[in-house]
C-alpha cells in the first residue's frame, strides 16, 4: 500500500509504503501524485519505506522510477529504510538520479526525525 500527504506549510510530500509494493504500484503512485491539486514539484520528498520490502523492485525498475519522478531536479529526497542493508536501493536511486540529473540530493535514513532534520538543513 502507498499513501501520501502533502504539507504545503513545510513544502514537503510525505509518502509511506507498506507491504511489498510492485514497480507498477510505484508508477501509479507517481502519476497520482503528479495530478494531486496541492502537489508542487519543488517540494521536498520524504519517503518512508520502514514498513515495506524492496523484494519486488529490480534495478531496471529503479531507473524507470527515477525517469518518472514528478519532482523538480533540485528537490531533495530523504528515504527512510527499515535497516541499513536496504539503503543499497537508495544508493542505486541516487546514482541513477545523478547520472540523469533528474532529482536533487538523495539520502537514506533509518528514522524519520533524522530525515526531517536533513531536509530542514537544506532549506
Question: Would you kindly provide a written description of the structure presented here, covering whatever features stand out?
Answer:
By secondary structure, the protein is α/β, with parallel strands linked by helices. The protein has one domain (2-122): 2-Layer Sandwich (Transcription Regulator spoIIAA). Helices cover 39% and strands 25% of the residues. It has four helices and five strands, in the order E-E-H-E-H-E-H-E-H. The chain has helices at 23-35, 59-68, 87-100, 112-122; strands spanning 2-7, 12-19, 44-52, 77-80, 106-109. A five-stranded mixed beta sheet has the order 1-2-3-4-5, with helices on both faces. Helix 1 runs parallel beside helix 2 (59-68). The mean pLDDT is 91.
Task: Please describe the topology of this protein.
Elements: E1 2-7, E2 12-19, H1 23-35, E3 44-52, H2 59-68, E4 77-80, H3 87-100, E5 106-109, H4 112-122
Parallel strand pairs: 2-3, 3-4, 4-5
Antiparallel strand pairs: 1-2
Brief characterization of the structure:
With about 120 residues, the protein is α/β, with parallel strands linked by helices. It is built from 4 helices and 5 strands, in the order ββαβαβαβα. It has a single domain (about 1-120), classed as STAS domain (Transcription Regulator spoIIAA).
